Structure formats: C-alpha cells, structure tokens
C-alpha cells in the first residue's frame, strides 16, 4: 500500500503536498517523492529518494520545488526494491507526464514488453511505470484525460492514480479503480489523496471517488466521469474529524496516543447509542425487520478486526442467541461459504479498504446475504458496498498497530448484541439494563488502567529480552490472547503466539521452558480454576509468567510475581479492558528494543492489495 496526494490551486503546491504526505506516511514509508509543474515554464520538476518523508523534506529544503500544481507519493514497495529509481512519481520518456500510483498492475510485464518494443525506455522495476508510458503513447494526439482513459482500458489490477502533464499545466487528474481516492474541495484550490487526514489542513469538504471514476481537477472546478465517460454528480461530504486528531499531540508515538484515546472513544459510542436505557441504532431502523428475519450470522475481517469479530461471536451467541461463524476474509473469499439470504454478514474493518474483506463482502452479496459493516472511515469502499453501516467513530487511526479501532469495534459489537438480544426477545429489559450499566462503566475503568501504565512499562522492560512469547486465554479472552500476540509481534518482531489455554496439552506445552515468556489472561471468570491449572503447568516447567487478572482475584495473583490488574468488570465485556494492558505491554517492549513502533517493518496500515 502507498499514499498519494495531489494539489492544484494558487498556493505553492510543495508545502501542502509535504504536509499531506506526512499524514499518509502510515500507508508506506520506504521511499517518497514529489513532482511539481511550473506553469509559466511548462516544466516538470521532480525530487525523490529512498527513506522516510523527513529525508524528502530535507531534500526539498535544500532544493525546493516551485509551482502551484503537483503530486506526491509515499511508497511501500511491491515491485522493485525501495530505491530512488523505483520511488514515485514516475515519468514518461520525455519527462512531460508524471504519475503517482497506489495499488498493483497485474499485467504490467506484458505491457512493458510491448512498450519496450515500441521504443519506450524504462527506468525502474516498478509495475507503475507502464501506466505513464501508456499515457505518453496516447497523449501525442489525445488530451491528458482522453489519453488516460485509453490507457486505463489496457490495465488489469487495482489502482488509484494522480497524474499531471506539463502540456496541460492547469489540470490534475485522479483515477480510482480498487484503491481509495478522495477529492478535497477547497476555495480556489482542489486536492486529491488516498485518505482523509492528508487533506484536513486545507478542507473538510470531500468527495469520495468510486471505482471506475476519473476526476479532472482544475483550480476552480471538479469534473468527475466514469471510465466510459458518463458524467457523475456527487455532493461533497462534510468531514467532522479534527486536524488535531491526526497529530501526535505531545505523545511520543501515535500508538501511545491512540491507546490513550480509548476511554473517550468508548464513552462517545455509549453516549451516542444508549438513549433512555435502550440501545438505539437509528441507522438500522429502516432495515429492522430484515435484520430480525436472519437465521444466522457470519463475521468476516482480517487481522485485529478479525480478533474483534471473534469476541463478537461470544457476545452475539450469548446475548442475541444466534449462531455465529467467524471467517478470515482471505479464507472466506476462496471457499464456497454457506451464506445466503438468511445470513447477516458482518464485515469489520477499520479502514474499510482492506482488499480481502471487500472481496469477501462481494462474494457474500452475490450469494444474497445482507451486509452490515462495522467501519471507522466515512465514505470508504466498505461503507459504500454494504447494506447498513455502524461506524466506530474512533477518529483517524494513524499507527499501523490497531488499538482504539479494536476496542471501538468490540464496543459496537457489544451494543449490537444487546440491541439484537432485545429485538429477538432473548434479553428481558432487566437483563439489558444490567448489561448496559456494566458497559457504561468501561470508559472510566479503562482510564484507571492507563493511569497504571508505568507498572506495565516496568514489566515490559524486564521481559523485552525474551526471544518468544506465548499468550494464553480462555473463552471470550481467547481472542484477547490472539490480539495480544499480534500486537507484540507486529511492532517488536518477537515471535509470539496466541493460544486457547485449553489447548496447552495438545501441543504448545512442549514450548515451555525458562526462556519462554507466557502472558496468562486470567480475569474474574466462571472458569478461573481452569486458568489456574494452566498457570501451574507453566510454572512447573519454569516458564516466565505474566498474569493479567482482575483486582481481588487473590488466588490467581498468588500464582506469579509479575501481575497486571484490571478493575472488576462483567466477564463478557472484559476484552474491552484486557486489550489495554496487552497494547501497552507490546508498546513498551517494542520501545525497549528500539523498534519503530508506528511504522513497523514490512507493514502498512491498510492492505488494499491481496
Ligand atoms: O483496516 P482493517 O481493519 O480492515 O485492517 C485489518 C488488518 O490489516 C489490521 O487490523 C492489521 O492486522 C493491524 N496492523 C493490526 O494491528
């Protein structure tokens, strides 16, 4: 995944592009670049290099770019290593056209062969470069827009593009096919970008392009058509995200800031969805009968969102009394899933742009299923392709490691399970009331955990040297174990496995010795004794135990020296609190090991290609 941005207006493009690019760095950070056009001279100037955006910034300070039209890119390499030649923008042979690309061109090899035979000279190993040469080929006698349209008919894959040509220095072209692209509507200036935060400094009015659309931006106009030339009229949406939400605000990393944002995010969801002692989802009302008629549920998601989905299974089966299947989107899409018109498919995604989840949704829709999305990003592909959307309202999540989006997804699932439970008369008014009262306490309890973060930091520092970690949990905290392990491995690169504690004797117990750190998630629970037995088995094999338990669980506390306590909480909602120490533990271990927490190696924030 990469980030693209483009600007046309009356101000110097490079400053705006650079600021926006910094907000897209979470999408890719192995190289970056920028091209601007000096209208007067009709000349294209370009700066690009490997490394993070700050290296591009230094280069621009030394060798500034001028011009009021430009495009820029932050790359996460797929084709060709991260070096200067492979960095975007890419140029045609005559250096008149520049493009930036997010996505993948599947048939680039054959196109490249043909273009080379026709005399085009390639400079990079990227798939992207074929696009600019194709446009060059047609731009000889067609306008930039028409040449782009013709080039698009040759491409297979998924892409979002930003294109400029010094032969038409009053136009910025954006193309969307399978990768996100947002148009920012300004005053005497217009922009495009891969994601909302990149545009917030300039405007909050945004148009979300759909697949197979081309936007031609001039300083004062936005003209959108489909690939086949049909005009598209779409009003801008007003984005309520604040620009400060996309800043670190004094925290050393976005991840730490986003961990701390969880109490207000959860509080906000509760305030919005609980009215007069009832869960109200106004957005579901028009579809209430349809939802009620469903006989089973199926959840699809990837990564952390999948773990939220696993928690959702326990919640929905317990509170709404419906069978729930949970599938990794990447698995769901390639088997023959048993979903039909009687199935409610819940697709969970922070970004709403994850390629596998979108493919799973399309597969489910083809089979007649009703799609409910749980998503964080307004206007994202998932929200447009689903029948109904429950937003998580977590604000922009910049750090690659998902934290606040995860707990917000679980909170929405808690509320939805209670809503469905009442609708299906599985829960009586009193039971719902009891659960809502418990849920309302969560933000305050989460705040309490954050206040104790220094203790978690010390435990993390004492364990950061371990070569591998095992996370164990049971029941509704089995997904917490999976999520804890994912958080640790993705930001600290320590091999970590999450397991259902009951599975210990079926294999993982063989791993235990004094070199293994084992995080045992053992909160107040009706199966507490089972967890205690597991802990004793690990102790007997000299595993280094860290226990996460609930205040007052003296018997569990007595089992190890390293204890992290969460406040007492209704067991069904405990994953909402357990998530915080797991996130903090991973964060502080990664810091101790000197890792780049917000931008872990090889990873990108949203996975828009398979
Ligand atoms: O945007 P999505 O929620 O669909 O993303 C799904 C996963 O790619 C994401 O949760 C990933 O696993 C995170 N890096 C985990 O922290």
Brief sketch in words of this structure:
By secondary structure, this protein is an alpha/beta fold.
Explain what you see.
- This protein has 610 residues and is α/β, with parallel strands linked by helices.
- It folds into three domains: 3-245, 4-Layer Sandwich (Glutamine Phosphoribosylpyrophosphate, subunit 1, domain 1), CATH 3.60.20.10; 250-440, Glucose-6-phosphate isomerase like protein, domain 1 (Rossmann fold); 451-610, Glucose-6-phosphate isomerase like protein, domain 1 (Rossmann fold, 3-Layer(aba) Sandwich), CATH 3.40.50.10490.
- The chain has 20 helices and 27 strands.
- Strand 12 (213-217) and strand 13 (222-226) form a beta hairpin.
- Helix 7 packs parallel to helix 13, helix 16 crosses helix 20 (574-592) and helix 17 (478-492) runs parallel beside helix 20 (574-592).
- The protein is globular.
- The mean pLDDT is 94.
- Residues 302-305, 349-351, 354, 357, 400-402, 486, 490, 606-607 line the site of 5-amino-5-deoxy-1-O-phosphono-D-mannitol.
Which terms summarize this structure?
610 residues; alpha/beta; Glutamine Phosphoribosylpyrophosphate, subunit 1, domain 1; Rossmann fold; 3 domains; 8-stranded antiparallel β-sheet; 7-stranded antiparallel β-sheet; 27 strands; 23% strand; binds 5-amino-5-deoxy-1-O-phosphono-D-mannitol
């Amino acid at each position: 995944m990469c980030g693209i941005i483009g600007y046309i207006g009356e101000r110097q493009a490079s400053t705006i592009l650079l600021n926006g690019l910094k907000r897209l760095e979470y999408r890719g950070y192995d190289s970056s670049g920028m091209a601007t056009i000096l209208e007067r001279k009709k000349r294209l100037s370009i700066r690009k290099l490997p490394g993070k955006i700050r290296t591009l910034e230094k280069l621009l300070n030394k060798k500034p770019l001028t011009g009021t039209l430009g495009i820029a890119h932050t790359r996460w390499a797929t084709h060709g290593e991260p070096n200067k030649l492979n960095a975007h923008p890419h140029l045609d042979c005559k250096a008149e056209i520049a493009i930036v690309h997010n996505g993948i061109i599947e048939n680039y090899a054959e196109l490249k062969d043909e273009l080379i035979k026709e005399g085009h000279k390639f400079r990079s190993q990227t798939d992207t470069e074929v696009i600019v040469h194709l446009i060059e080929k047609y731009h000889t006698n067609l306008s930039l827009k028409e040449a782009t349209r013709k080039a698009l008919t040759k491409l297979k894959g998924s892409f979002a593009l930003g294109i400029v040509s010094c032969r038409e220095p009053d136009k910025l072209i954006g193309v969307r096919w399978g990768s996100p692209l947002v148009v920012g509507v300004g005053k005497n200036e217009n922009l495009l970008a891969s994601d909302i935060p990149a545009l917030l400094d300039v405007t909050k009015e945004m148009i979300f392009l759909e697949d197979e659309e081309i936007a031609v931006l001039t300083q004062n106009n936005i003209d959108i058509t489909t690939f086949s030339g049909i005009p598209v009229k779409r009003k801008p949406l007003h984005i309520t995200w604040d620009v400060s939400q996309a800043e670190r605000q004094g925290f050393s990393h976005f991840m730490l800031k986003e961990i701390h944002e969880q109490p207000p995010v959860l509080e906000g969801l509760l305030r919005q969805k609980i009215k007069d002692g009832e869960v109200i989802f106004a957005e579901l009302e028009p579809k209430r009968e349809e939802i009620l008629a469903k006989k089973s549920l199926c959840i699809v998601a990837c990564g952390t969102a999948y773990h939220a989905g696993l928690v959702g299974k326990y919640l929905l089966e317990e509170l709404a009394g419906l069978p729930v299947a949970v599938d990794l989107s990447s698995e769901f899409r390639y088997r023959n899933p048993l979903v039909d018109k009687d199935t409610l498919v819940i697709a969970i995604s922070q970004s709403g742009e994850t390629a596998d989840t979108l493919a799973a949704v399309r597969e489910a829709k083809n089979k007649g299923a009703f799609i409910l999305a749980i998503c964080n990003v307004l206007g994202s592909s998932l929200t447009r392709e689903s029948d109904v959307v429950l937003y998580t309202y977590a604000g922009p999540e910049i750090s690659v490691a998902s934290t606040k989006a995860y707990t917000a997804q679980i909170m929405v699932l808690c509320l939805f399970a209670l809503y469905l439970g009442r609708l299906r008369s599985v829960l009586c008014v009193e039971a719902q009331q009891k659960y809502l009262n418990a849920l309302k306490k969560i933000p305050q309890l989460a705040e309490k955990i954050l206040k104790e973060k220094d203790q978690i930091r010390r435990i993390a520092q004492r364990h950061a040297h371990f070569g591998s970690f095992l996370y164990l949990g049971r029941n509704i905290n089995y997904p917490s174990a999976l999520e804890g392990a994912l958080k640790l491995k993705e930001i600290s690169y320590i091999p970590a496995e999450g397991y259902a504690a009951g599975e210990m004797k079926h294999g993982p117990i063989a791993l235990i010795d004094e070199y293994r750190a084992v995080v045992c998630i053992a909160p107040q629970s009706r199966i507490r004794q089972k967890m205690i037995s597991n802990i004793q088995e690990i102790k007997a094999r000299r595993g280094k135990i860290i226990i996460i338990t609930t205040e007052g669980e003296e018997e569990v506390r007595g089992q190890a020296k390293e204890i992290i306590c969460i406040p007492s909480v209704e067991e069904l909602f405990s994953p909402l609190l357990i998530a915080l120490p797991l996130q903090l533990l991973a964060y502080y271990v990664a810091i101790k090991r000197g890792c780049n927490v917000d931008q872990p190696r090889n990873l990108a924030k949203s996975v828009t290609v398979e």
